[in-house]
Amino acid sequence: MIHCEGLVKIFKTKDIEVVALQGLNLTVEDGEMMAIIGNSGSGKSTLLNILGGLDHPSAGQVRVGEWDLLKVNDSELVQYKRSTVGFIWQNNARNLLPYLTALENVEMPMMLSGKVDRAYAKQLLEWVGLKERMHNKLQQLSGGEQQRVAIAIGLSNRPKLLLADEPTGSVDTRTSDQIMEIFRRINREIGLTIVIVTHDLTLASKVDRVVAIRDGLTSTEFVRRNPGLDMASEDGGFGKQGGLQEVHEAFVVVDRVGRLQVPKEYLEALGIGGRATMEFDGGKIVITPPKLIKEEES
Ligand SMILES: Nc1ncnc2c1ncn2[C@@H]1O[C@H](COP(=O)(O)OP(=O)(O)OP(=O)(O)O)[C@@H](O)[C@H]1O
């Protein structure tokens, strides 16, 4: 579904350039539900905005389905956004219209794209657990319910890919669990590919694969040890404390030409700056601080 290779995004302002993505590689399979984690400023939203067609990449490759997002023109991009991708933001509910009902809010974007499908709008609200509340005005719904209306809207154009940026960032744990349950269901039942950006490791531990971004590059991948395990139980089947390392195996990402990212903490601990020594001992690759030439000579 998604294929990024060497993806670069540079933001240029008057006097500075920020390289937000520095040659990022990422592949997401059709029907996969995965999460992207990373510190603030690591490039997560930049990546999501590019995948959502909201921002243009600077260089590299980025394909979503049949679309080449580096090459699309403006009218193709409109088509891409209408036909392929759905978006959910942390504060999506803020963009809803308080004086319209939940159902009317879901129908609104359908109207803007020229085709209202009331039966589908109702089905979406049923999927997100708002069957009984679809005729209530938005202002009569709780924050969590409004976020679920926003999810229904994100699905209203029947996307093939759903992008969610901190979708549970401003809701309580119960609503957060409900939202993850909705994602899981639509992922299973209609095979929708879902990419979730989050800071929340508990949330991330509920998906099969988590990709960590550091400084605009994919650095580590966490793959679930037991993907067959039923995730429907309250704690995702992992115990309440199910952190990433407990549930997933961590792999460092090595790109096609052999580049990998060594965590800054490791480098600092060993005092490695611009250079290091690398040795292959037949079973391991060992990176050590460079030996001083003087030492070698003595
Ligand atoms: N429009 C912009 N103009 C200039 N710099 C930008 C712009 N958008 C993002 N950046 C910079 O790009 C880098 C990556 O930002 P991005 O928002 O993608 O990070 P993030 O991982 O989503 O962070 P957060 O978790 O805080 O949302 C940051 O250094 C940020 O300051």
Automatic annotation (TrEMBL):
Record domain SpoVT-AbrB: where: 249-292
Gene3D superfamilies for the chain: P-loop containing nucleotide triphosphate hydrolases
ABC transporter domain segment(s): 2-240
Pfam families: ABC_tran
Nucleus recorded as keyword: no
GO molecular function, one term: ATP hydrolysis activity
Tagged with keyword DNA-binding: yes
One GO cellular component, as annotated: membrane protein complex
Keywords: ATP-binding, DNA-binding, Nucleotide-binding, Transport
Signal peptide location: none
Transmembrane segments: none
PROSITE patterns: ABC_TRANSPORTER_1 (PS00211), ABC_TRANSPORTER_2 (PS50893), SPOVT_ABRB (PS51740)
Family recorded in the similarity comment: Belongs to the ABC transporter superfamily.
Entry protein name: ABC transporter ATP-binding protein
Lineage of the organism: Bacteria, Bacillati, Bacillota, Bacilli, Bacillales
